[in-house]
Amino acid sequence: MTSALQRFLPLIVTTAVLVVGFLMCAAQFPNFASWRVVGNLLTDNAFLGITAIGMTFVILSGGIDLSVGAVIGFTTVLLAVLIEHGGWHPLAAFAVALIAAGGFGAAMGGVIHVFQMPPFIVTLAGMFIARGLGFVLTTDSVPINHPLYGELNDIALRFGAGGKLSLPAMLMLGVVVAAVVLAHWTRFGANLYALGGNRQSAELMGVPVGRTTVAVYALSGLLAGLAGIVFSLYTGAGYSLAATGVELDTITAVVIGGTQLTGGYGYVVGTFVGVLIQGLIQTYITFDGTLSSWWTKIAIGVLLFVFILLQKGLLTVWAGRGGEPAEA
Amino acid sequence: MTASTAPPSTPLLAIRGLSKAFLGVQALDGVDFTLRHGEIHALLGENGAGKSTLIKTLTGVYQRDGGTVALEGREIAPRGVEEAQRLHIGTVYQEVNLLPNLSVAENLFLGRQPMRWGLVDRGAMRRRARAILMPYGLSIDVTAPLGRFSVATQQIIAIARAVDMSAKVLILDEPTASLDAQEVAVLFKVMRTLRSRGIGIVFVTHFLDQVYEVCDRITVLRNGRLVGERRTAELPRLDLVAMMLGRELEAAAHRIDLGPAELDSRPPLASFKGFGKARSVEPFDLDIRPGEVVALAGLLGSGRTETVRLVFGMDRADRGEATVDGRTIRLKGPRDAVRLGFGFCPEDRKKEGIVGELSVRENIILALQARQGWLKPIPRRRQEEIADRFIRLLDIRTPDAERPIQLLSGGNQQKALLARWLATEPRLLILDEPTRGIDVGAHAEIIRLIERLCADGMALLVVSSELEEIVAYSRRVVVLRDRRHVAELRGGEVSVERIVAAIASETPNMEVRQ
Ligand SMILES: Nc1ncnc2c1ncn2[C@@H]1O[C@H](COP(=O)(O)OP(=O)(O)O)[C@@H](O)[C@H]1O
Ligand SMILES: [Mg+2]
């Protein structure tokens, strides 16, 4: 195996699972292989995908962000309250929500770095705080009726027969492309991988550890805020219990996408594929109609387990190889 | 060897009165260090002397408590590695392993990637990475993850990175630890080229041969203090070792009775031929006869601990053979060694020796019980007998045998550890730094005990940094340098001066004789 092939193997396997899964669904349901299904797959999972990209960066840097689901929930409530109760224009509310979410992430990053606290604990606390703040604003589900919401939801690129790329889907694809560039063509991206590889070595090699840590949690918060905006567009409401457990769904997508939970290894694109695999399973169950939706969770659980075993196996094989690779 | 260019009047780097303490440990205490343009300057001292701390305080990993640092006459105080790098100080830290998950090229350019249109120019990065590695004879796939290469290759890449960043100062903290002779030769060539360009190089190493091969000047630290700065050409090895060890070499040698000469004719209890392990200790021959004390002397890091770890099977030798009682044996682990009647008191008794929460009694019977197997517990009555006997014999100061051992003083813990192995009635007992960190009184008692044990026919293999002590009780002294057994002194030859001379001797494998 060449070294490049070996490096991309987790990504290749994930993609193969998606393609094979899609073909199997298409073989079973005649209407499945359509642009409409693909378009819905992207739209329905847009908020998850956007959040998972932020999570990928955090995990690559050797951390974790458990607050993202709560930040999405808080963002939807904040938007609803500002727009409906405060009479704000949605665009102004969006700006405030993004700043609040990004600032919240940056604060968690700062605490993690300055006090050398485990990210798990800090972001767990962040999760409770964000949920709590949402409830303080309002405990009700507040519908958002601003006309702009309707207009934004009508924006779509039509393609193929019945295919439709909605605004959320476009946003997600844009975030994925930007994230790939950020990860592989900027110094910040290299610093993230360095931090996830070995914090001490990274520091001794001149990586600005503090700045990078704050930035990556700020980025994750910002993307969770964006996902919150998408979620409120999608549901047309703000509710403090929205997106409960999404942090776990995103971590799952990241791991299925081939990123190592311990940091330092993985690809943003893999996470995107991981999100699509989860969406695909859900779509399958909808199509089937007889299966309980809980089968989605079971299938994802099994898949996650298999992928982690696969990664472990690959790592063992790599470690066992050792020595000098063949000259390229 | 001086630089081709005349050195300007201001030194490249002038460190004055540098101090740094860690929670009670004064790692650096008012140290001066001067690096001139175009010189290779060895920074020497035993482990813990403060070399790495000096480097890290200089490059902003640690913030200094006091003192000044001037680079080309300008005061500097980097607050982080990044800032030091911007001042053109390139460093290979002792523990740096770069990042195994990044590609070779990314490691070489982390934090200073070539950019184009605001983005990292990966193509240029690859090309320049290949060019940087060229002088080291490395033509490898620079896009492969670093972790896939051998430790030596990774080390060279770390050096190449630092060299490429060091327009003014290059600092190498023990860079040669995992390199072979050829790789070291390449490194020295690169260092000489940099020197001829006027760059100042700080070179930390444990290998004295390397110091005399490339260094122009030597600064020695001991216990965080400056011992002195000398020109290499004017400092004989003997004086250098004395500076590092800080010993008055004319120490009176009052030696104990060495035991009857007929000891030499006894068949060896254990015999090792060509025994060794790659990157640990060079192959060595070693015979140990019943009733004698063999000491291993050398600087820290010279391979003493590695030797005893091999003998006790804690590390597995990858070459040579071992015989015990004339029979060839295979040491697959400490259990094999224990079965053969070997015992081992490790250097770091906190980490590898005592179990703090257990009582003195339980600590003493631990090895004996392990040898019998845990399924056959030693009766409580017998345990108490054994514990009481050794507490009396070794004069372990404890109110009673049931006291948790962590409440005892260091010297008494050490004696309890010794008792643990004595209880197994070993034929060969290995002691690594038996008197380290214990008070003077216990010190003398442990030495007396060593003498008594040998009179009873037990063989002892002792590692110690206390040369006077070694001279006092050893029949034979094996001297190690650079992970090699370089000399063996016996009987009347054993003296502090001879040991120091052997540690400092120029040619490897030279027998030190008159
Ligand atoms: N980060 C640290 N925290 C606490 N003590 C330290 C630290 N680094 C070094 N020391 C202590 O400072 C002293 C000097 O260590 P070091 O500079 O590593 O010595 P050397 O490199 O000469 O072997 C030692 O006593 C060591 O235990
Ligand atoms: Mg050191």
Briefly note the structural class of the backbone of chain A: mainly alpha
Unreliable segments of chain B (pLDDT under 50, ≥5 consecutive)? 1-6, 248-258, 508-514
Mean pLDDT of chain B: 82
What series of H and E elements makes up the topology of chain A? HHHHHHEHEEHHHHEHHH
Sheet with most strands: strand arrangement of chain A: 1-4
Classify the helix fraction of chain A into a percent range.
over 70%
**CATH architect. name of the largest domain in chain B:** 3-Layer(aba) Sandwich
Protein name (chain B): Sugar ABC transporter ATP-binding protein
Subcellular location (chain B): Cell membrane
InterPro entries (chain B): AAA+_ATPase (IPR003593), ABC_carbohydrate_import_ATPase (IPR050107), ABC_transporter-like_ATP-bd (IPR003439), ABC_transporter-like_CS (IPR017871), P-loop_NTPase (IPR027417), YtfR-like (IPR049716)
Domain ABC transporter (chain B): 13-248, 253-507
Description:
The complex is a heterodimer of chains A (328) and B (514). With 328 residues, chain A is mainly alpha-helical. Chain A has a domain at 46-245 and 259-267. Chain A contains 14 helices and 4 strands. Chain B has 514 residues and is of the alpha/beta class. Chain B folds into 3 domains: 13-245, P-loop containing nucleotide triphosphate hydrolases (Rossmann fold, 3-Layer(aba) Sandwich), CATH 3.40.50; 252-341 and 427-514, P-loop containing nucleotide triphosphate hydrolases (Rossmann fold, 3-Layer(aba) Sandwich); 353-425, no CATH class. Chain B contains 17 helices and 22 strands. In chain B, the strands form 5 sheets. Chain B has a 6-stranded mixed sheet, sandwiched between helices. Chain B has a 6-stranded mixed sheet with strand order 18-19-20-15-21-22, with helices on both faces. A 4-stranded antiparallel sheet of chain B has the order 2-1-4-5, with helices on one face. Chain B is elongated, with a radius of gyration of 26 Å. The interface between A and B is large, with 35 and 36 residues. Residues 51-52, 94, 173 of chain B line the site of magnesium ion (MG). Chain B: It is found in: Cell membrane. Chain B: This is Sugar ABC transporter ATP-binding protein. Chain B: One of its GO terms (molecular function) is ATP hydrolysis activity.
